[in-house]
Amino acid sequence: MKLKRLEIFGFKSFGRKAVLEFNSQITAIVGPNGSGKSNVAEGIRFVLGEQSMKSMRGKRGEDLIFNGSHSTGRANRANVTIVFDNSKREFALDFDEVAIGREVYRDGTNQYFVNGSQVRLKDVLELLAAVHIGASGHHMISQGEADHILNANPKERREMLEDALGLKIYQYKRAESERRLEKTELNMKEADALRREIAPHLRFLKKQVEKLQEGKELRERLLGLYREYLKREEMYIEYKKKDIAGRKHGPTNELADLNMKIERARQELAKESAGDEKSERLLAVESRLRDARKRHDELSRTLGRLEGMVEFEEKQLKKKQAALVHKEETPIRLGDVEALASELEEEFLNGERSNDLNDIKNVFSKLRNVIRSFIARHKEKAGQQSLTEEDHRELSALKDEKAKAEGSLREIGEESRVLEGKYQAVKAEIDQEKERSRDTERALFEMMARRGERESELDRIRNEEENLAREERHIEEELNEARTLLGQAVLDYSGVVIDTGEVMKELREEQETRRRMIERGKIKLEDIGASGGEDAEKEYKETSERDLYLEREIEDLVKTQESLRDLIVELNEKLDTEFKGGVKKINKQFGEFFKLMFGGGVAELNIVKIERRKHRDTDIDLSDIPGEQGPELVEGEEEDEEGIDISVSLPHKKIRGLQMLSGGERALTSIALLFAISQVNPPPFMVLDETDAALDEANSRKYGDMIENLARYSQLMVITHNRETMSRAGVLYGITMGSDAVSKVLSIAFEEAVEVAK
């Protein structure tokens, strides 16, 4: 990689645009004091991201902008652009040239550019660190700072060497990993806190969902029981209807036939026994007997209906009684609630007027006792509640009506028995009076007896029909309740497969047992409240998914934390290994340059431990106070760091240590060390700002030899007044300043001048 040119506009004394081309390995910049030649070096510092205004001889960003003169207006911004040859792709950019620019405005705003695109300072520093150009400035040695590395403390020297050895990229990665690790740990704490926050709510929702699931399972079981029950009832009723219809058809037809025959027989008998008073009596008794039987049948049907109504009303009263048992559903008088609110309001006012914590606690205690007493009082009232007289009034009326019907039925039954006796008595009289057998009369009596049997049989069948109709009404009620509780799905029982013979063989008590099981299931389902749980299930699902997401997030963060820690350990090991290896190589070059500069002697870098003074977590000794302990050391104290110390030994002098060196000796030592560093890990370019100012003629020649040797590895830009140093340059730039206070650039290419001279 090669430094191609530097463009300066508006920076310090460069009021007009100046371009410096670097076509030689050694470029010298000369000029009188105050002409602005050091501003070139500071411009390079500026564009490479220097943040210290002190190192650029300013206090604020505005000081870096050309401030104008009596003939030239001031600039509004300062811009410096440095251009590198990237044909070998040392920079990780797919361009043949890489231009890094920086602008500062009078409000102090800075902008950075790479090939015209605005970037961050961090991007510029990382881009430069990848090619061993760091922020410590080992590649830029300004006037008066040549021995900065000697004056620095061990920690600062280590940082300089790490920068020079190209280890900043690892430090950037380590710092980034540590920031990511800190952020990861913070995210872990936040995720864990969120999980702890939602855990109680999740447990509550889980119980709710389990209860709802239990309700769903109960609904399914109840649905199955209902379907089987309804299917069996439907099959039973259908079978009974067909059976009754089959049994009713024969007696009905036979009764109709008997009535016709009896009527004809009566007509014949009337002809035979016209005027027969006993026969008339017999017919009258028969008529009354038929009327009594007819009224008996009507009362039987009425009694059946009343029994059904009584049974339905008793069922409704049982449900109401069961509802009263559940105290949670017991209504409370508005007046009682208003009295409670008034009492609570009074206690709240007492608490608000007091500033004493004990009084406030007493208020809360009274509030708790008032609420508990209110609940207990109404629970007791709820336990004492029962069905009222009004609730029993309709049932009592129905029972009275039923009792009257039963009494009337008994009276009609007694009347029928009396008429039957009279009928038999009259018949006996007629039999006694009539000795001869009359076929017609006998046939009539037989037919009437047969008709009585058939009518009784039909009465029994009609009773069965009434009972069956009552059961149908019960089934309809069950269907309505089931539909309300379980929805339309309960009506879909057509797919239930049950053998008809099994249904008819089964005792009705077993079906009643199923009905009682259904009733118990309905009560339990109502207690659970399984309906309307979609919102709770949705919330539980969302909360569970969030908890699972947080759990996975924490697991991922733990893995990230472990990988970052491993990466930091790996980077520390790599830094330590490469740093120690680099120090070893620098020591070799440092010793050789030192001997060259001083004609002998020994100089080397040593890795030393930087001890940290451990402090205590308090400066107050509490050991003399009972129950207190003395100050303890803070746990987690960082390990001792390593730094760099420099030891020198001059030839023919008993001088060991930097403190005993003269100014010239310190300058030569610092130059030897800086050149040694540059030999081990040569930077792409170096800027030497009058680092040879303190050298005599002999040492200047040595210095010139050293920079020629160094130029084989790095491109050099030397700001100097030394003629020996100038003679080693391939291009010489002269900086001048006229009356307009603007720095101007003149150039001489020595290599071209030699060719022209020849």
Overview of this protein structure:
The protein is α/β, with parallel strands linked by helices. Helix content is 62%, strand content 11%. Among the domains are: 1-133 and 717-758, 3-Layer(aba) Sandwich (Rossmann fold), CATH 3.40.50; 189-330 and 385-528, no CATH class. It has helices at 37-47, 121-129, 148-151, 154-164, 168-272, 277-325, 334-353, 357-384, 389-433, 439-486, 500-505, 508-528, 534-598, 663-680, 697-710, 723-727, 750-757, and strands at 2-9, 18-21, 26-30, 77-85, 97-105, 110-114, 117-119, 140-141, 602-610, 641-649, 685-689, 715-719, 731-737, 743-749. The strands form three sheets. Strands 2-1-4-5-6-7 form a six-stranded antiparallel beta sheet. The chain has a six-stranded mixed beta sheet with strand order 8-11-12-3-13-14, sandwiched between helices. A two-stranded antiparallel ribbon has the order 9-10. The longest helix is centred in the N-terminal third of the chain and has 105 residues, at 168-272.
Give the end-to-end Cα distance, rounded to a whole number of Å: 32 Å
Number of strands: 14
- Please report the number of helical segments: 17
Shape category: rod-shaped
Enumerate the spans where pLDDT stays under 50 for 5 or more consecutive residues.
Answer: 615-637
**Largest sheet, described in full?**
6 strands, antiparallel
Task: Kindly provide the radius of gyration, computed on alpha-carbon positions and rounded to a whole number of angstroms.
Answer: 59 Å
Measured as a percent range, the helix fraction is 55-70%
Strand fraction equals 5-15%
Mean pLDDT: 78
SS-derived structural category? alpha/beta
Main sheet: strand order: 2-1-4-5-6-7
